[in-house]
Amino acid sequence: RQMCIRDRVSTQSTWDSMLFNLSKRGFAVAGPPKFLITGCLGQIGRALIPKLQAKYGPNCVVGTDAIKPADLKLPCKFNILDIMHAKKMDKIVKDNNINSIIHFAAILSATGELMPEKAKDINIRGLEHVFDIALKHKCQLFNASSIAAYGGDKFPRESAPEDSSKLPSTIYGISKIYGELLGAYYNSKFGLDYRSLRYPVIMSSQEYGYKGTAIYTTEMFFKAIHDKKYECYVNAETKVPAIHVDDCVDATVQMLAADDKKFTKRVYNLAGLSFSAGELANEIKRYVPEFVCSFKPDFRQAIADTWPKLIQEESNKDWGWKFTQTLPQLVDKIFGDIKEAAKVKTPAKQY
Predict the structure, then answer these.
(1) Which one from 56, 150, 172, 287 is the annotated catalytic residue?
(2) What is the pLDDT of residues 6-28, one digit of tens each?
(3) 3-state secondary structure string, 205-220?
(4) Shortest CA distance to 103 belongs to which of 129, 76, 79, 121?
(5) Which of 16, 138, 143, 199 has a CA positioned 20 to 30 A from the CA of residue 245?
(6) Does 172 participate in catalysis according to the annotation?
(7) Up-side HSE of residue 174: CA atoms within 13 Å toward CB?
(8) Average pLDDT taken over every residue of the chain
(9) How far apart are CA 292 and CA 223, in angstroms?
(10) Considering the entire predicted model, what is its pTM?
(11) Which residues pair with 202 in a beta bridge?
């Protein structure tokens, strides 16, 4: 019994010493940034790569994802990586002198509810691997969060403050809250340079196979162009905060470069603008007058109903992010970027 106690005390003493030493280490990124992006083939990752290269040079990014289509060409070095394979991730970070990890790999909200065990593995256990490796190699860590972190009935849905109550009811939302709290802990306990943005719905001018709860905000454009009709799976009154992927990427690049001494928190909302599914359909009719949008809610309606309609943000006063855009401007941008939009008559601007 005495041996067990002695061993326990010795182990605890070693652990306490290790924690103390870790907490005193500096985590400032040394030299030019070298980024590892997990889940780089997703909506945000693909758009982020060229933005980082434009700012830091063509060799600043190593992309990873679980698969890579044979016909897909990326402008950066790429490694196939299952986020559950921590040893391979560790080797990629070491071999490429990575000093900043941008973590996007995740199973999104709607898919996560169909396969919660898989989502738990990827979104929680995989995330823990990322934290461990960032800590080991003293990397800056940016972990994407989401408005799915909100939930419950303890926050004002019409306009949710940054620090209001968050009681998510989906495995995706739960994993995002876990990441936020873990990031704050690792920053406080070990000095990890942890940064995160709570993304709103991300809209794009490209079609993606990833089926998040609010993919209707992008699908609606392509269905209008190709089919002239769309059956939307949320009701017309459903409001969500949203932002174009280009603006999302600009905010992310700005936050990565910001002086974290100015941060008053480790996670910030990225607000975007708020509009309903019906309002979006009406704006699309400016370009496709014959477009008919019907509304037939499915299980994703219940998920969207847990989200805030608008989120407040404090990033402007802390690190200078500014966003001003109207819904007509957003719709004009998306149609302008869609190649097939050349077939659609451009209406007069309404702003």
Answers:
(1) 172
(2) 333 333 433 333 333 443 344 55
(3) CCCCCCCCCCCHHHHH
(4) 129
(5) 138
(6) yes
(7) 13
(8) 89
(9) 10
(10) 0.89
(11) 243
